[in-house]
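#help-structures

NK: newbie question. if I give both the sequence and a SMILES, will the prediction place the ligand too? trying with zinc ion
OV: yes, paste both and it writes out the complex. here, I ran yours:
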Amino acid sequence: MELPGDEELVARLRARDEAAFALVLDSWSGGLLRLARSFVSTGESAAEVVQDTWLAVIKGIDGFEGRSSLKTWVFRILVNTAKRRGKREYRTIPASDLGPTVDPAKFGGPGDPFPGHWLEYPAPWPGPEHAALDGEVRAEVAAALADLPERQRVVLTLRDVEGYDSAEVCAILEISAANQRVLLHRARAFVRGRLDAYFTGGEVAP
Amino acid sequence: MNCEQFVEQVTAFLDGVMDPASERRFVDHLAECDGCGRYLDQVRATVRTLGDLPPENLPPEARESLLAAFRRTDV
Ligand SMILES: [Zn+2]
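OV: that's the protein plus ligand as structure tokens.
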């Protein structure tokens, strides 16, 4: 279902056009719910955060200034609602988030003939095209997502699950592009490592 | 560039934000190293699978109560 452009949408919402509200509600609640879940632990409180967000949207739509897209504005309200519950800080990256993302033992050391090169190539995965269709693989990915530290989970959810680009994620979370990339990079490497362990029966470092 | 450095640049490469000189070193390495080619493909497959997670839905009661709240709000 195609959404009208922001200008039309905002005008209709301000005119209290219920069909327009149902349209955005149905289009965006799934993404909002998933994003809420990356902040709060239970499905129930995630649904509450989404409801509080929509109530704030209803209240605030007349004050929307159009400095971001309507959808970004709505998602940002959700982030602020969720953060208020937990009082989290996103602006700085802890040192623990800055180390290598692939186990250094997988690469040759200074004494090896090829320092810094794979001692053994990553094992092949069964047909990556099929991998995206497999329910069991998806369950493994969902479990890995749930095991990530919160900030990485939030960024990965927005970027790769919901498909936002880097600028939009920075706008929603109000973080720098560099921090966004560090969190995304670690999160992807972690989930890739979990899939690798799943496909090749190996262990994954916590 | 070696493999250990390559794997830390994958996200910057996929986002297209590397400076031209680093990007050339990255691509040169990719051309010659099957292990890193496979690593990059696996990161891409991971991203694809994440994008394929099933959608979530708001409980119908929550949807109804929000529609009702919208109806009630007049300016
Ligand atoms: Zn390599």
